[in-house]
Design brief:
14 helices, binds magnesium ion, alpha+beta, 31% helix, single chain, binds 4-amino-1,4-dioxobutan-2-aminium adenosine-5'-monophosphate
Length: 466
């Protein structure tokens, strides 16, 4: 490894027990204060929520250079690691040499000391990772992605890359981004006037994927347990704090798992991830708990320490109907639950995460296994406090005839899905899976309240800046 790769980062130096050693610090200046004799420069390199204090004897440095060391500038410091005299940090660096990598004009640099609103910071998504809040969120995002791969690796799952460009509509939702190289101002037409997709790049109409599940099922029918973890696209025009047009989804798919096994996995997986955050991200959690959500750490512990409630959709509707609550959206058997209903069940009624199962078939996707009652399917939604739905999944239909009937109910042509049907024709097996929205998970573990603040570059209706 190069010397630069081995250089201790701010997080390492703050934990270092040695004193009097020479160290090199590289990072961005958060603040500079002091007097005519001494300057205190708080440096952060993104490795921790905490800054390293650099102390510079004004007389030993070029005045012009020190003037350019302002909030937002980037510097290299060589100096001695010593006990800090000030409170608030164990060590500081007594500077011997300072190099300015890049200045930041105080007149125009947007991130001055004072607190900014999250809305303002969204407009400067290229600079917001340099704030405490977004540094914390990004580090936690990394920790969660790493923990997801670790969990599956440790449990015998294989990581499967499913395509982002597809010709199938996995959710039957119809809210898709089309992928085409045709001239949209003047597309080729067939005799009946419709667009001639045989002339398009792929020779048929394609879109960005809304889910990797259907290809995930191919993987499970050979490798037993797989998971996907990749970008997912939905062109729904929903401007809510929980919806993105581009988000990342984790989709495990398991042969031989029935609905019960699927629920057990979802609960164990979510608890593992939250425990991982509590064990590995405490500095960042404490900051977010203090700044944004005073119940955050308590709530995370509560989820890891308690069993999720498992409830029939029908019973859920019953509870909601008898709640005496005035909901904005109607409650009745056959209707889908809205976020307000989900949150009522979780936050007010049970005060625990809830796994709602056996939904009416009409409101769920075509691939879900039909129950013996003929009117509900083996669906499961995991509902979380503050978030509502964090996971959606099901046991899959394996009966070829039933599956074909369901597909024709949804207007899906069997010839477009021949390969999916083949999985039921050759070596079919009971199987199940679910999808976890990565950014919904991040909302929960960071305590942030808008999904635009947990993804680095949010894609939402009328917004694709950066
Ligand atoms: O419930 P959904 O639509 O389920 C599926 O896509 C299935 N194919 C999953 C499976 O069984 N393999 O989406 C799964 C999860 C939701 O519970 C939610 O967490 C997240 O994906 N999600 C979104 N997150 C952010 N923005 C959006 N627009 C989302 N839509 C779904
Ligand atoms: Mg869903």
């Amino acid at each position: 490894m190069s010397k630069e790769a081995d250089r201790p980062k701010v997080a390492d130096l703050l934990k270092c027990a040695e004193r009097g050693v020479e160290v090199t610090v590289k990072g961005w200046v958060r603040t500079k204060r002091g007097n005519k004799n001494v300057a205190f420069i708080a440096v952060n390199d993104g490795s921790t929520i905490h800054n390293l204090q650099v102390v510079a004897d004004v007389a030993s440095f070029d005045e012009e250079l020190l003037k350019q060391v302002t909030t937002g500038s980037c510097i290299r410091v060589v100096g001695t690691l010593v006990d800090s005299l000030g409170s608030g940090q164990p060590v500081e660096v007594q500077a011997r040499e300072i190099e300015l990598y890049g200045g930041a004009d105080p007149e125009t640099y947007p991130l001055q000391k004072k607190g900014h609103t999250l809305e303002f910071l969204r407009e400067i998504a290229h600079l917001r990772p340099r704030t405490n809040t977004f540094g914390a969120v990004r580090r936690m995002s990394h920790a969660m992605a790493f923990a997801i791969h670790k969990y599956f690796n440790d449990h015998g799952f294989y990581y499967l890359h499913t395509p982002l460009i597809t010709a199938s509509d996995a959710e039957g939702a119809g809210a898709m981004f089309q992928v085409t190289t045709l001239d949209i101002a003047n597309p080729p037409r067939t005799e009946d006037g419709s667009i001639d997709y045989t002339q398009d790049f792929f020779g048929k109409q394609c879109n960005l994927t809304v889910s990797g599940q259907l290809e995930g099922e191919i993987g499970a029918m050979a490798l037993s347990k797989i998971y996907t973890f990749g970008p997912t696209f939905r062109a729904e025009n929903s401007n809510t704090p929980r919806h993105l047009a581009e988000f990342w989804m984790i989709e495990p798919e398991m042969a031989f798992y029935e609905l019960e096994d699927n629920m057990d996995l979802a609960e164990d997986f979510l608890k593992y991830l939250i425990r991982y955050a509590l064990e590995n991200c405490m500095d960042d959690l404490e900051f977010l708990n203090k700044m944004y959500d005073n119940d955050l750490i308590e709530r995370l512990k509560f989820v890891t320490d308690n069993d999720f409630v498992r409830l029939d959709y029908g019973e859920g509707i019953e509870i909601l109907s008898q709640s005496g609550m005035k909901f904005e959206f109607p409650v009745a058997w056959g209707l889908d639950l809205q976020s307000e209903h989900e949150r009522y069940l979780v936050e007010q009624h049970f005060k625990k995460p809830v796994i709602l199962i056996n939904y009416p078939k009409e409101i769920k996707a075509f691939y879900m296994k039909l129950n013996a009652d003929g009117r509900t399917v083996r669906a499961m939604d995991v509902l979380f406090p503050k978030i509502g739905e964090i996971i959606g999944g099901s046991e899959r239909e394996t009966d070829l005839d039933l599956l074909q009937t369901r597909m024709s109910d949804y207007g899906i042509r069997p010839e477009d899905m021949w390969w999916y049907l083949d999985l039921r024709r050759f070596g079919s097996a009971p199987h199940s899976g679910f999808g976890l929205g990565f950014e919904r998970l991040l909302l929960f573990v960071t305590g942030m309240s808008n999904i635009r603040d947990v993804i680095p570059f949010p894609r939402t209706p009328k917004n694709a800046e950066f």
